Amino acid sequence: MIDGLPYRQVGEPKRGGLVCVADHASNFVPDDIPLGITKKLLDTHVAVDIGVAGVAERMARRHDIPAHLAMVSRLVVDLHREEDHPAVVPTESDGHLIPGNIGADVEARLKKYYRPYHTALEKWLEQAEPALIISLHSFTPKLETSDEERPWEIALLHNQDDRAARHAIRLFGELGLTVGDNVPYSGKQLNATMNRHAEAHGRHYCAIEVRQDLIMTRAQQSRFAAMIADVCGRVALALD
């Protein structure tokens, strides 16, 4: 973490512009939190949304879309869950037991990581007054606990407000991508950050999931950063 903060911000928001939020951009686990798992697992989707930090960085530095990125792993505290969600400090993920989280002091982790992250995000968005928030995540092509392949290259999640998502689904499709609608997860169940910071305030948002194998390299991350920036820029104009 930087200066002990559970987040970092790249770029300066411009009022009425686009911003990016990445809740699962880091696999960092503080030394005082022994999870009881192998280091190898920290490099998998269990601990981090692979490729997201690279895409968000490129969107911020090359496409003028500032980013608010998590600096702590979802295994420490899942910033994309409600405070009272049973998996806000997960004890299992895709068939892997997280023994160090069994009986963990959830309140301490909320206080140290979760609340500062969301408080800073709230202030950042209030100052930015963005035309569109891009909530960026990635998903694995197949879960370890399932044989079901996930064919989508990119997907849009939404809960009650699907206005931006509808435009984005069409525009990504016109680029030749296989686009999912509320898959591989449904925004009706998993939309905590955008429920809180977008829908609750009437802010437009695109909750985007990119398949991880498509954003592993720098070149791939640059490609998707450009596509997302282009599509979301056009979405913002359509909603104006």
From TrEMBL:
Example of a GO MF term: hydrolase activity
SUPFAM superfamilies, per database record: Zn-dependent exopeptidases
Alphabetical UniProt keywords: Hydrolase
Pfam family, one: FGase
UniProt keyword annotation of Hydrolase present: yes
Matches recorded under InterPro entries: N-FG_amidohydro (IPR007709)
Gene3D superfamilies assigned: Zn-dependent exopeptidases
Protein name: N-formylglutamate amidohydrolase
Organism: Erythrobacter insulae
Taxonomic classification: Bacteria, Pseudomonadati, Pseudomonadota, Alphaproteobacteria, Sphingomonadales
